[in-house]
Write a structure and sequence with these properties.
Chain B: It is found in: Cell membrane. Chain A is of the alpha/beta class and 154 residues long. Helices cover 25% and strands 21% of the residues of chain A. Classes of the chains: A alpha/beta (154), B alpha/beta (211).
Chain lengths: 154, 211
């Protein structure tokens, strides 16, 4: 004759899902932190050379230039090493306008501190690199970072 | 009261556990950062000024041919020996600098036929168009390593007292500067400049011949 009726006859209660949002947020944060955004897809082979006297690169003031052989799905561009800027192949003569454009897109106070990051495949001829450097001199972007993998010192 | 329903699991601490994990991952994951060799290019100079005459003994020439072989000071040299040879050249201190001071911190042989002073010592590098970029980077790396070795040595001599625990004093100084990049530490900057001035990096690159 109790007022409160026991319901369910001893069945297991549903598992609380109150913490599900927490778990989901946790995963979300994790992936947000761990993902590296890549803003241009590479159309060239890009095996970086290695060096041990490396310095860190400040991403906010860097413009990247890629160079190397066109990769297998871009065979129609031939076998010779090409220069890639953002999402397109460019010729040596286009380096200067591209760099000036890149500098103009930067934050104003960083424009004078611009660094050009050269990501060049290690099997490329050094002649192509020196062509790029000549163009950079013409564009007055004189700070260059040769991007390399870190080699562990023996 | 023979049959009791199972009590609900207390989920109040679930959020704490979640945050704990989140913080753990936040701390342990490192975002991969690009690293590389930083180098300044010379600005284009159109003025017709006669370049100053540099004595042959103050010039350390490194040539790389199309087969990736090295010619250092007119002699063929394997890449492994380049660092030693460069250090010996820079650290020679056989004479005086432009101000007439002799190099009192150099520990080299003080030979008459090698460089006068680290101020005057210039490394000249030239490569062929066909040289592979990998070899070019290896050579650059060795040359920078020679400078870093000497700067490290001087930093240890002068400033070891401020960084008693540091293995590499110059690296520790640069790291500290990096860490405090928003609060300018005049003293630290001055010290770094002093070290850099002791062994100024004078690395000139010639354009490869067009053929």
């Amino acid at each position: 004759m109790s007022k409160f009726k026991k319901g369910g006859k001893g069945e297991l209660p549903a598992i609380s899902t109150a913490s599900l949002p927490d778990i989901v947020f946790m995963l979300l944060f994790f992936f947000m932190v761990a993902t590296v955004m890549r803003d241009s897809s590479l159309m060239i082979e890009n095996q970086l050379p290695s060096a041990d006297q490396v310095e860190k690169l400040k991403k906010d003031r860097t413009i990247f230039i890629y160079a190397g052989k066109p990769s297998s799905q871009f065979k129609q561009f031939g076998e010779e090493p090409r220069i890639q800027f953002n999402d397109a192949f460019i010729g040596v003569d286009d380096v200067k306008p591209s760099i000036l454009q890149g500098i103009a897109d930067l934050n104003e106070e960083l424009q004078s501190k611009v660094v050009v990051g050269l990501k060049v495949d290690k099997n490329t001829n050094a002649g192509l690199v020196s062509d790029i450097k000549q163009e950079l001199r013409k564009a007055n972007a004189l700070k260059v970072m040769y991007i390399a993998n870190t080699k562990t010192e023996q | 009261m023979a049959k009791r329903s199972a009590p609900e699991v207390n989920a109040g601490s679930m959020a704490d556990i979640a945050f704990l994990l989140l913080i753990f991952f936040l701390v342990t994951t490192t975002i991969e950062k690009d690293k590389g060799l930083l180098r300044s290019l010379p600005p284009i100079d159109d003025t017709e000024v006669e370049p100053p005459i540099i004595k042959q003994k103050n010039l350390f020439t490194v040539l790389i041919n199309r087969n990736n072989q090295l010619l250092v000071e007119e002699e063929e040299m394997p890449l492994e020996e380049l660092r030693e040879a460069t250090i010996a050249f820079l650290d020679n201190g056989g004479g005086t600098n432009a101000a007439g001071e002799s190099c009192d911190y150099c520990k080299g042989e003080r030979s008459e036929t090698s460089s006068d002073h680290p101020d005057k010592a210039i490394i000249s590098m030239k490569h062929d168009r066909e040289t592979s970029y990998e070899q070019y980077m290896d050579v650059q790396n060795e040359l920078v390593a020679a400078y870093n070795f000497l700067r490290e040595r001087e930093a240890t001599r002068l400033y070891k007292k401020y960084y008693p625990d540091a293995d590499k004093v110059f690296t520790a100084m640069l790291e500290e500067k990096e860490k405090n990049q928003f609060s300018k530490d005049e003293k630290l900057n001055e010290r770094i400049e002093t070290i850099k001035k002791l062994f100024p990096m004078k690395l000139s690159e010639a354009e490869p011949d067009k053929s």
